[in-house]
């Protein structure tokens, strides 16, 4: 793993600890992507999340999606990091989002046939897989002028679809712990930002969002 220290949006940096589940993924300072991240932070600070997710004028869509995908990885990394002690083989023997939704892990390369595993194991597989994608310079080029691959959008969609499952698991199985830790404002703001972003660019199929559909509708109606 490369030198992955750095800052996440201020909306989650006030967490009870800076413990992350995996090392943070850093966007190199001085790069154009870093400037985009700073722009995103500034517009987020205005409090208008619908506006904050919009593609800045004249910017490349792939690059905007890449910067935000890295940031959501860091946010979820931090949020899950605060509740790992409550997400155990015993408490969560399957990876679920409520009684109706269960996820089995496959990455298409190392594990081709989906396997049933505990939530902590699944999330470990998932976050390691995402990290590997983000660290792959052919998929997420950090150098100026290096083009994004033709399949970038489909890779980004798969990453975001899988990251959503971590939010869904936290909300369904661990929200009481989140409340006790007084982390619910961080979780809600992060999730709202994530949902507005994927809605803006149509990145996750509606069926995939079903486990948190009521919450998504509530967050959207509050914003109108």
TrEMBL record:
Record keywords: Kinase, Metal-binding, Transferase, Zinc
Binding locations of Zn(2+): 87, 92, 169, 174
GO molecular function: kinase activity
InterPro entries per the UniProt record, alphabetical: MOB_kinase_act_fam, MOB_kinase_act_sf
Domain of life: Eukaryota
SUPFAM superfamilies on file: Mob1/phocein
Pfam families per record: Mob1_phocein (PF03637)
Gene3D superfamilies named in the record: MOB kinase activator
Record PANTHER family: MPS ONE BINDER KINASE ACTIVATOR-LIKE MOB (PTHR22599)
This protein's name: MOB1A kinase
């Amino acid at each position: 793993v490369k030198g992955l220290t750095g800052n996440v949006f201020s909306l989650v940096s006030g967490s009870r600890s800076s413990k992350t589940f995996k090392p943070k993924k850093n966007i190199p300072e001085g790069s154009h992507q870093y400037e985009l991240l700073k722009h995103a932070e500034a517009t987020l600070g205005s409090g208008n999340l619908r506006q904050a997710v919009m593609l800045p004028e004249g910017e490349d869509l792939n690059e905007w999606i890449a910067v935000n995908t890295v940031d959501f990885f860091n946010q979820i990394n931090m949020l899950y990091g605060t509740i790992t002690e409550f997400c155990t083989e015993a408490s969560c023997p399957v990876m679920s989002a409520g009684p109706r939704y269960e996820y089995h892990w496959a990455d298409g390369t190392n594990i081709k046939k989906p396997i049933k595993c505990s939530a902590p194991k699944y999330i470990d597989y998932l976050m390691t897989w995402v990290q590997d994608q983000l660290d792959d310079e052919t998929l997420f080029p950090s150098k100026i002028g290096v083009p994004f691959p033709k399949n970038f959008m489909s890779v980004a969609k798969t990453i975001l679809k899988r990251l959503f499952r971590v939010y869904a698991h936290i909300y369904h199985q661990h929200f009481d712990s989140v409340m006790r830790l007084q982390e619910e404002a961080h979780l809600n703001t992060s999730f709202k930002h994530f949902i507005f972003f994927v809605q803006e660019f149509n990145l996750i199929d509606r069926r995939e969002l079903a486990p948190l559909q009521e919450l998504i509708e509530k967050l959207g109606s509050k914003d109108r």
